[in-house]
Amino acid sequence: MSVEALLANYAEGHRHPINQALQWVCAPLLYFSVFALLWALPNLAWLESVRLNFAIIALAAAQAWYFSQAPRLGFGMLVLHALLIVLTSWLSLTLPFPLWLFAAAIFLLASIGLVAGDRIEGGGRSLLNGLRFLLVGPLWLLSLLYTKLGWRH
After folding, report:
1. pTM of the entire predicted model
2. Chain CA centroid to CA 125, Å
3. Is 38 in a helix, a strand, or coil?
4. Any idea what the Cα angle at residue 27 is, between residues 26 and 31, rounded to 5°?
5. Tell me, what's the pLDDT at 3?
6. How crowded is residue 33: how many other Cβ atoms within 10 Å of its Cβ?
7. How does DSSP classify residue 124?
8. What's the rounded Cα separation, in Å, for the pair 65 and 100?
9. Contact present, 26 and 115 (Cβ < 8 Å)
10. Angle between helices 17-40 and 54-69 (to 10 degrees)
11. Is the predicted pLDDT of residue 125 greater than 80, yes or no?
12. Per-residue pLDDT tens for 53-65?
């Protein structure tokens, strides 16, 4: 399926203004929370020796998918991923409680927000499509931003 078809399919289930507002808040938070939960997993010794963790490996795979689907949007996601790494690293060092707890709370709240938006829309498809929509949601928001700025994607 082409990136335009994926974005159109995603947009079809996100037309209501309240659902769109929830998407702008909750989709990035859900994406962050999954990344942070992966970041908080204990590392295997060989991963630490090359300064990798499960979150970075997952992010590299996601980034490869973004570039393969839409190179221009992929560059935007690359910038967002760099910010995500910096933010998560900083939080892991400064939070007074475990990162996984913070990420789990955000995951729960963001999921509730997305489910509420889907109910307002009259469906429940976004969360049921799992990983694909987890990846497409931020891409859809970025594509809207590109369109607003007059950039091609």
Report:
1. 0.89
2. 17
3. helix
4. 115
5. 85
6. 22
7. -
8. 26
9. no
10. 140
11. no
12. 899 999 999 999 9
